[in-house]
Specification:
The structure is a homodimer of 258-residue chains. Chain A is of the alpha/beta class. Chain A has helices spanning 24-48, 65-73, 91-94, 100-103, 125-128, 134-153, 167-179, 191-196, 198-211, 227-245; strands at 2-3, 52-59, 81-85, 112-116, 156-164, 219-223. The first copy, chain A, contains 10 helices and 6 strands, in the order βαβαβααβααβαααβα. Chains A and B meet through helix 3 and helix 6 of A and helix 3 and helix 6 of B. Chains A, B: One of its GO terms (biological process) is polyphosphate metabolic process.
């Protein structure tokens, strides 16, 4: 995993695959062990009811966001985890500022919230479609930075992951959506069009990594061509974040900080 | 009305009464005329469905926020106006950042939203009660400024009014809550305690006017000892804000900008 902290980042130079020598079987066993650890850490985090955790997942189409959620979180008590997938905004959502619908889904204390896509779409697909120009994007970058800072200052750990697939891997997966009956349901009209716009999408992602990437809230660029490796990298980062919070079981249920 | 744009503001130096020579009867007639104008402007603003308007009302206890809403807005189509009174936060609200519950009530396009008290309570009463220290207040000031900027950039006009009563007038009104049966219902336990803390409240208000008062989103300090004058001042500011938006009736109902 690379932390995208450079001021101008070139995605093509960052790996999309596991480092040489990593073995799938070994990592899969490690991931299994990590999942148990995560389940225990999350139990204590939930009981302590003091912090919250927001996981932001972004990536090109077919970068495997859904599969990642399944692989990393399936061992965790669902009572403490919520997933929200942000789709195309409704009329009501468009009648407010772009963070209005996002803010409603930020996690309360004790909870882990996963954003499957997020407010970053408002400076990604919207730019490729020409709905948002560079000037408006700059304003939104500032608003996003202030918003994430507000969350952090209120006790929310914010983890941002970009699932970094290669163009070749994306094309292969998009083709499977057509050829593999078990994957038909993932096919969306527009997949081909978006695949053709690969360079435009990469460029606006790079702009995000340049402007919404403070040291206090960095992006994790996760090599995502291999599902087993990507899940392991995210699980590790999540484990580290939970360890850092150092949650303790409270003495009483009512011992809730206000 | 004074715009609180100086970097350090002394509330005791700002008037709480109408300028000498203003006559109640004359202003009352003016207000009546203004209300008609407001009703027409709001109708067009609503139909255009392009901008939104947020009115933030703050003031000491008994400064007359409820009465002001009645006096200024009673002629306006209630379909286009919403009032939200922010009370002591619930457990669920306290489990999120302080702007979480506020953001949910920001106005959609076409709407006028009135906040009867607001996110400013999170840097006012909370400070007097010692729940928020100066350092946390500074962080919240930044968050508030970024939040209001986000709203403005999304087409929301933000008007902030502080209803400025004198301590003498406040005491008189609080006494009436006890002695006048038609005002008993306004009495709240704690009224006396808060009245005793007048200097502390004035000090934290002054801090707000120093830190959350950009030229693009200033406070209006409204002399509020006389109900007739205060309503007139707010109605004038609202009229000016609506005129500035220069709303036009759209050609079709469906002509809604996205």
């Amino acid at each position: 995993m690379s932390s995208a902290t450079s001021s101008s980042l070139n995605l093509t130079k960052l790996p999309t695959r596991a480092p040489r020598g990593m073995q799938k079987e070994h990592i899969a066993a490690e991931l299994k062990r990590l999942r148990q650890e995560l389940a225990e850490l999350q139990n204590c985090f939930y009981a302590e009811n003091r912090h919250s955790l927001l996981i932001i997942l972004q990536g090109m189409d077919a970068s495997g966001k859904d599969g990642l959620i399944r692989r990393v979180f399936s061992g965790i008590n669902p009572q403490g985890v919520q997933v929200h997938a942000f789709k195309e905004p409704t009329d009501e959502e468009l009648a407010h500022d772009f963070l209005w619908r996002i803010h409603q889904h930020t996690p309360r204390r004790g909870m882990i919230q996963i954003f499957n896509r997020s407010h970053y779409e408002d400076v990604l697909i919207t730019r490729v479609l020409g709905l948002v120009n560079a000037e408006e994007a700059r304003r939104r970058f500032s608003a996003i930075n202030a918003f994430e800072k507000l969350l952090q200052q209120s006790g929310t750990t914010v983890l941002k992951f970009y699932l970094h697939v290669s163009q070749e891997e994306q094309l292969e997966r998009l083709t499977e959506r057509v050829t593999d009956p078990s994957k038909h349901w993932k096919y969306e009209a527009g997949d081909e069009q978006k695949a053709k716009q690969w360079p435009q999408y990469q460029a606006v992602y790079e702009d995000v990594f340049e402007h919404c990437n403070p040291a206090s809230c960095p992006w994790h660029i996760v090599p995502a061509d291999q599902n087993w490796y990507k899940a392991y990298v995210v699980a590790l980062a999540l484990r580290d974040a939970l360890l850092k919070l150092d949650s303790k079981y409270p003495e009483h249920k009512a011992d809730r900080p206000k």
